[in-house]
Amino acid sequence: MRIVFLNPSGQIGGAERSLLDILASLRAAEPAWALGLVTTANGPLVPAAEALGVRVVVVPLPEAVARLGDGGARRAASLPRLAAAVPAVAGYVRRLRRAVRALAPDLVHTNGFKMHLLGLWARPRGVPVVWHVHDFVARRPLMSRLLRGHAPRCAAVVANSRSVAEDVRRVCARGAPAGVWPVHNAVDLATFTPGGERLDLDARCGLPPAPPGTVRVGLVATLAWWKGHETFLRAVSLLPPELPVRAYVVGGALYETADSQRSTDELRETARRLGLDGRVGFTGYVEDSAAAMRALDVVVHASTEPEPFGLVIVEAMACGRAVIASEAGGAAELFRSGVDALGHAPGDAAGLARRIGELAADGGLRARLGAEGRASAEKRFDRARLATELVPIYRAAVRAWS
């Protein structure tokens, strides 16, 4: 089989890490398959995919198209903006169609909302398209209408959690593809492991070395509005000053879509207003997130909206870290609170502060959660599982459309 994957970014965020895990799993399980990737820009994703033996083609996305979206805090997309971008979209579809045809796929697997539509418009005649949905569709008014209208042309939907799968079914209703399959993301357990390099977080943040006995607590996430950075900072500000905790915001800006993320400067100003000068550091984008997690004693997931999946939760568990995670959406499917992680209500800074304080004061609890988290990752989230679940979906889609 020849599969072409379409991705709307050359950077590596959660959806791209999931994509790389899929590529690695397929390469190991089906070494004779030809895998191609079309992405919209050069970036870390390109060499990472090429290292897996994937043929990568870059078809640059016009800025007018890249900035379209309605997932940001201010719902940036509008019908007038969409109408103004129509000529750029049409030109891009022509270029994308040429690139996909050159790779001669039996199936197209799209990653990201823009690519779900662009992939349908650009695919060669008779080639099935599988959407891989990583986010709740219902949150996006414009995209909901567009995907509902195009769903009958999609061969199957892979969703990264049961919560997202149900959301797709509700939004698309009668027009939903016959198969909407929940397939949890996975991690490379050889990369995300308790042993290995640890990032010098203090040096990266320009802070003096933390005193011995300091408990390092970090939020590891892109700077998307709903990732809960302000909740995390407010929680840290509520901790007793005598508690030996230093906090870190690990991650940087990733998205091109207008109004979809905060800036580091905004977060620094928030920290300053909360009186956190010297108590919190900002690393910016970190390429080796596993090394950053291993440098932390506690990894916090603080999304304020129901999380479609929550890859950082699984990655931190695989690294043997104690994890605190928002209990909503797909994230709640990933752990058992009190067993392999601790849960907190989304957006509840006081509740999150209590959880941080609980772990900061109890090294034994941190160690137990870390060990149980690693065991859960090995049992449920090894990326070898991905090919086992995806290959039958691909084969059924090709048979149905042949």
What is the overall silhouette?
A: globular
Arithmetic mean pLDDT: 91
Q: How is the biggest beta sheet arranged?
A: 7 strands, parallel
- What proportion strand? 15-25%
Helix count? 15
Uncertain ranges? 72-77
Structural class call reads: alpha/beta
Textual characterization of the structure:
This protein is an alpha/beta fold and 402 residues long. The chain has helices spanning 14-29, 45-50, 63-66, 79-103, 113-122, 141-150, 162-172, 201-205, 229-237, 264-273, 289-294, 311-318, 349-360, 363-380, 384-401; strands at 2-7, 34-39, 55-58, 107-111, 129-133, 156-159, 180-182, 215-220, 245-250, 280-284, 298-300, 322-326, 342-344. The strands form 2 sheets. A 7-stranded parallel sheet has the order 3-2-1-4-5-6-7, with helices on both faces. Strands 10-9-8-11-12-13 form a 6-stranded parallel sheet, sandwiched between helices. α9 crosses α13. The radius of gyration is 21 Å and the shape is globular.
Brief overview, please?
The chain is of the alpha/beta class. The chain has helices at 14-29, 45-50, 63-66, 79-103, 113-122, 141-150, 162-172, 201-205, 229-237, 264-273, 289-294, 311-318, 349-360, 363-380, 384-401, and strands at residues 2-7, 34-39, 55-58, 107-111, 129-133, 156-159, 180-182, 215-220, 245-250, 280-284, 298-300, 322-326, 342-344.
